[in-house]
Amino acid sequence: MDDDLPSGLDPEQFSARIFGTGAPRSGAGLELAPFRGVRFGPRVDPSAVTCPPYDLLDRDQVERLKAGEGHNIVRLTLPEDYREAASTLRRWLADGTLITDPAPALYLYETGGRRGLIGALGLRAEADKVVLPHENVYPGPVRDRLALMTETRANLEPIFLVYEGGGDTARIIDATAEGPPLLDFHADGQTHRLWSITDPALHARVAADLGPRQALIADGHHRYATYRALQARAAPGDRHDRNAWDYGLALLVDSTRHPPHLGAIHRVLPGLPPDAALRGAAEVFTTNELAWPEALPALRNARGPAFLLGGGEGLHLLTDPKADLLERVMPAGHSPRWRALDTAVLDHLLIGSVWRVPEDEHSVEVVHDDPLAAVERARRTGGTAVILNPLKVEDVLAVAAEGDRVPRKSTSFAPKPRTGLVLRLLDLG
User: InterPro entries recorded for this chain (predicted)?
Assistant: First the structure.
C-alpha cells in the first residue's frame, strides 16, 4: 500500500514530491464541486456523534468519545484497525445510521459566526498556484491517512482552506443562510449549522466565481497530500465518470468576510528532560525565569524569535538567539522572511542543532493554542514544553505566495470544521 510513496526523503523533499507536478490534474482554476453527501440520520444526536478533527484529539479524548455514543465519527477517523473502519462505515450505511443525500450538493457550514462552503475540491499541483500549501508534511501521517482512505474509499472529514472572495459566492451563501438548516446544534462551546445547496444553477454561479481565484490550505496538509497520493495512484480503469480521485472533501472560507483566527501550535518533547533542555538553550539564547502571570505577556511582547520553556519547576523565556550560530544552522534556499519565522528557528536551531531531537511525530508532539495544556502534558511525560507565539497571517500568505512552505505544524487556523457533519464516498463521485 505504501510502496508508491517516496521514501528516504526529508520533509521538504517529501512535500515537494507529493505536492508537485507529477499527479494528473482535473482542470485549471479553483474548483469546489457538488457531491452526494453522506450524513448521520435523524435518529442520532449530532452533538454526540461529531467531534473535532482527528489530529486535535489526544488519546484520552479518543477513548472518552468511543466510550460514549456508540456511533461517534471517531470510530471511523481514528479506528483500531483500518479494515474495522471500513466495516463500520458499511454497517452504518446499511442500518441507516448514515444516510446518503439524493442529489449532489454544496453544503453551507456556519460556526463561530463564520461561514464557508463544503464541497469536492479539485486537486491541483502546487505549480498551478491554485491550491497553495504553506506547511511541509511527513510521510508517516500521510501513510496513515492513505491507508484509511484506501480501505474506506471515503473522505471522512474536510480539510480547511481560505480564499479572498467577496463575489457572487458570498451572495449565494447569504441567501442560503436565510432558509432553515439541515442541522443546528451546540457542541464544544459553539453553534454549528449546516445547509444544503442543490440547485445546479447556483452550482454554476459558484464555479464561475471561484474559477479565477486561489486558495490557501489553512488546515489539513497531510490529508491534502493524501488526496494527491490517491489521485496519483488511481488507474484509468478505476476512475468514475466524475473522476472521483481528482477531488477531495474541503471547507472553503472567504477570508475577506470571515477572517480566520490564527493560533500557535506548541511543542512537547517527551524524551527531553526540562533541565537538559534549559542547559542547551542557555548556550544560544538569553534566558529569564518568569512566573505564569508575566510569562505569556513577555513572550507576546518579545522582539525577534522567542520561546517559553516549561515542564519543570518554572517557566523560562528564551530571547535574542546568537546571530552567528543562527546564520550557520538555518538552511539555505529560503527567504529572509522564512528564516526569521519562530518555528523555523525552533526546528533548526533548538530542536535540530542544540537538542538533537529527531523531528518526527513521536519525538515532537504538538498542542494547539493551549499553552497550559502543553506544559501539563510535558510534566506528565517528564519532558519539555516549548510555548510559541502565533505566526502572522501576512507572513504565512507571503511565504506560500513565494512557493515556499513554513515548517510543519506552524499554524493553527480556526474555527476548524467539525468532523462528522458530512462525508464523501469515492464510489459516489
Answer: UCP033563
